[in-house]
Design brief:
alpha/beta; 46% helix; 11 strands; 15 helices; globular; disordered C terminus; two-stranded antiparallel sheet; single chain; 5-stranded parallel β-sheet
């Protein structure tokens, strides 16, 4: 008999996460690194920004991820003429009842694909800010809750920048993870053709690996993961190092530090652990920090990338030694105090 989601152990949670990843791999040829980064953001109640050239599978990844999680999915194509109401919805007059009714926008779904988000003007991009941060939208003074879970997967194209609008720093900061699929290798592209030969539809699809209740249980389990004080300090030191780098105008923000912390806890659950390690931080550092770094003009001209700043921080900050058997945060001080009291007696 399958384990109840309400009683999900960390070992069972890790198995469910692997099921999700393997189900996505049935339809998408992509590195597992990308899938683990994306899944970590979902379990951390965050959002994902995918930047890559056309045709690498960004849209398919978002849709198949939603299918594997058993969640509802909506796609919103961002264009220069898109209005905020096209995202959130609006009040429409019903002539029969002679009253206004709220017509939900495409943002009312569990997984929302904001395709080519940088093609819409900043005012429309900003329509997603409240949804991403608060899980709600406000229209004409009325606040409406979005479905739970709620995840935004946004894509943008790093080429063909004519007619696009750079994402404001405040919006990029709200994405827990920024990742890139890249081109597959020869075996990967051969696998794509094999998948296409074995189906009669253009777009691939998969059966759910879990259901919404299990997704919520996985998210709840993330909240119980222990992060040692030394690991917390490691995250903070890395973030502060990016701010002190002479190549940056803006480093990782305090909000970014919290998003890194949350994603690291999710990484621990995926790995089947009740505690986070420095390796979790190192593994996710670039994906969770680089898109929050704003370079100086000189650094940009010299060809520096935000990821270079994060890598420099990783090289400069000492990795803490943490024992998985250490007592939970807060208990160490209590135990030390008790030992001191015993010594005095």
């Amino acid at each position: 008999m399958a384990e109840s989601p309400k009683a999900l152990s960390v070992e069972a949670a890790s198995d469910r996460c692997l099921d999700i990843v393997e189900r996505v791999e049935e339809a998408v040829v992509v590195e597992r690194r990308v899938l683990f980064e994306t899944l970590a953001a979902v379990l951390a109640r965050g959002h994902v920004l995918v930047e890559d050239v056309p045709g690498t599978g960004k849209t398919v990844l978002a849709r198949v991820l939603a299918e594997s999680l058993g969640l509802g999915f909506n796609r919103l194509q961002f264009t220069p003429d898109l209005l905020p109401a096209d995202v959130t919805g609006s009040n429409v007059y019903n002539e029969h009842d002679r009253s206004f009714e709220f017509a939900e926008g495409p943002v009312f779904a569990n997984v929302v694909l904001a395709d080519e988000i940088n093609r819409a003007p900043p005012k429309t991009q900003a329509a997603l800010l409240e949804a991403m941060e608060e899980g709600q939208v406000s229209v004409d003074g009325t606040t409406r809750d979005l479905p739970e879970p709620f995840v935004v997967v946004a894509t943008q194209n790093p080429v063909e920048q004519e007619g696009t609008f750079r994402l404001p720093e405040a919006q990029r900061d709200r994405f827990s993870v920024k990742t890139s699929l890249g081109y597959p290798d020869v075996d990967g592209e051969m696998g794509l053709l094999e998948q296409r030969a074995n189906r009669r539809t253009i777009s691939p699809s998969v059966e759910p690996a879990v259901d919404p209740e299990t997704v919520r249980a996985l998210r709840d389990l993330v909240e119980d993961v222990r992060v040692d004080t030394k690991v917390r300090r490691y995250i903070v030191d890395l973030a502060r190092r990016t701010r002190e780098d002479r190549r940056t105008k803006i480093g990782v923000s305090p909000r970014g530090v919290q998003r890194v912390f949350e994603t690291v806890r999710a990484s621990a659950v995926i790995g089947g652990r009740t505690y986070a390690t420095p390796d979790d931080v190192k593994r996710l550092a670039t994906a969770t920090m680089a898109h929050r770094v704003v370079l100086t003009t000189e650094a940009t001209v010299e060809g520096t990338e935000p990821a270079d700043v994060v890598q420099s921080a990783l090289s400069a900050v000492d990795v803490p030694a943490v024992s998985p058997d250490a007592p939970p945060v807060g208990e160490a001080d209590t135990e030390a105090g008790a030992e001191a009291a015993d010594a005095e007696e």
